[in-house]
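Progress note, sequence design subtask.
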């Protein structure tokens, strides 16, 4: 459990740092930083699932700290949900629908790409 907590702390710290940097770099009415972080997390989880778990390269003791802890706290469903509701409340329906559609489609594609990369990795 301590490993999951440590992974969670690192993932939250990484999300905050990357999110702050992306927000300053890419100011927009669309929640692009949240989308980018969630897609990166989906790619990482796809890779870890394929390489670390399915191919057995990640020791059992590291699985939960990496997946549930780090990647789980790095990605954020709650922030994505709030971002979407705020767009709806502001009457920005097209942006809200784009956020939902793009997040789902690109997130699933990122998991798929992560797994494909994992199975091609030769180490």
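Output:
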């Amino acid at each position: 459990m301590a490993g999951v907590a440590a992974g969670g702390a690192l993932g939250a710290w990484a999300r905050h740092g990357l999110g702050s940097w992306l927000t300053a770099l890419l100011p927009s009415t669309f929640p692009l930083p949240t989308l980018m972080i969630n897609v990166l997390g989906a790619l990482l989880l796809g890779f870890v699932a394929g390489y670390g778990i399915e191919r057995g390269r990640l020791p059992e003791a590291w699985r939960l700290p990496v997946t549930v802890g780090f990647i789980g706290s790095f990605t954020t469903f709650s922030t994505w949900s709030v971002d979407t509701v705020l767009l709806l409340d502001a009457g920005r329906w097209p942006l809200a629908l784009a956020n939902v559609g793009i997040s789902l489609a690109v997130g699933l594609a990122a998991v798929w790409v992560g797994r494909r990369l994992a199975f091609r990795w030769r180490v």
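The radius of gyration is 16 Å. Work on this subtask will continue into the next period as scheduled.
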